[in-house]
Each structure stands twice: as structure tokens, then as C-alpha cells.
């Protein structure tokens, strides 16, 4: 009975460590893939949040005049 209790604890810890390792590997790979995929025309990296269009230019001209 003592042997069974120890093996269950070991299998639980082994499973927890495997899950933690898989999660960290996934996060590290996803972070590097996103960083490589996004490249803007100005040379900076990151998502494109705003693009200046003719409509936007007209809107901002009306705000400041």
C-alpha cells in the first residue's frame, strides 16, 4: 500500500512538471513567432494600430481648425 501511494504522488508531480514545461515551451515559441511576423514600413516591430488615410486627414483637419 505504501508503494502505491508514492507512485501516485510521483506520477502527479511528473504530469505537473511535463505540463509546466509544455506550457513554457509554447509561450516561448509563440512569442518569437509573433515578433518575427510583424514588421512595419518604418522599421519598428509591433502591430499596426493606426493608418493615416485621406478620411482621417480630413477629420483631424476639422478638429484643429
Distance from N terminus to C terminus (CA atoms, Å) equals 84 Å
Shape label: rod-shaped
How do the helices and strands follow one another from N- to C-terminus?
Answer: HH
The total of helices stands at: 2
**How many beta strands in the DSSP annotation?**
0
Which stretches are low in confidence, meaning pLDDT under 50 for 5 or more residues running?
none
How many domains, as an integer? 1
Estimate the helix proportion, in percent: over 70%
Strand content: under 5%
Radius of gyration from CA coordinates: 26 Å
Oligomer description: single chain
Let me know the largest β-sheet. none
Specify the structural class: mainly alpha
Mean pLDDT equals 75
Can you walk me through this structure?
This protein has 65 residues and is an all-alpha fold. The chain has one domain (2-64). It has helices at 2-37, 54-64. The model has no long low-confidence stretch (mean pLDDT 75).
